[in-house]
Design a protein that fits this description.
With 183 residues, this protein is an alpha+beta fold. The chain has four helices and seven strands, in the order H-E-H-H-E-E-E-E-E-E-H. A hairpin with a 7-residue loop joins strand 5 and strand 6.
Length: 183
């Protein structure tokens, strides 16, 4: 048994664990009545394109390896079955990652991670750059430390104004809940 014959089953197991984790989170968000307010068109464009290209490459390379394995060992060998399962696991894993950033009632949902409105400590609207892109930096707290996230908009995009209004509304709801608890 060599390293390559162990690599693909381990990769499948990791994919299945991540798919299970994402499904569990999705179910939890559904219980909390997460509603999608709108999708951000400009944010994370290069990452979405890169993940789609990587997914296509992985599926094609798995197909070529499957054909080669089928010719050498037959259809029902362990390696051939691994090459059948792996592309489907990768598709199930990468399709949610390659979706657009969502602004929801619970927070900002980017790359299968939800940043809740309650966790956002600050929002910084940075001036547009020479390409006409405007970044919005979010500072939010996690379990262990503070993190930052960048969202990308076009300079005079209506989604930027919509995001500003949404952030004000939902972050004020967070403050209203805290004030209600103190009384």
């Amino acid at each position: 048994m060599n390293v390559t014959s162990l690599f693909y089953p381990v990769m499948i197991i990791v994919c299945l664990v991540m798919i299970y984790s994402n499904a569990k989170k999705h179910k939890q968000y559904k219980k909390e009545n997460m509603e999608i307010l709108y999708l951000l068109n400009e944010d994370d464009r290069t990452m979405r394109l890169a993940s789609k290209l990587l997914l296509a490459f992985m599926v094609l390379s798995s197909g070529f390896v499957f054909i080669d394995t089928y010719r050498r060992m037959g259809m029902f060998s362990t390696e051939a079955l691994t090459m059948i399962i792996l592309p489907f696991a990768l598709i199930a894993l990468y399709i949610p990652i390659s979706t657009k950033t969502k602004v929801t009632t619970l927070g900002i949902f980017k790359r299968q991670n939800l940043i809740r409105w309650d966790d956002i400590k600050g929002i910084d609207y940075i001036k547009p750059d020479l390409k006409g892109k405007q970044k919005v930096k979010l500072l939010y707290k996690t379990t262990y430390k503070d993190m930052s996230l960048e969202l990308m908009f076009r300079k005079d995009d209506e989604q930027l104004e919509l995001f500003k209004n949404t952030a004000k509304e939902y972050r004020n709801k967070k403050k209203d809940k805290r004030i209600g608890k103190e009384k």
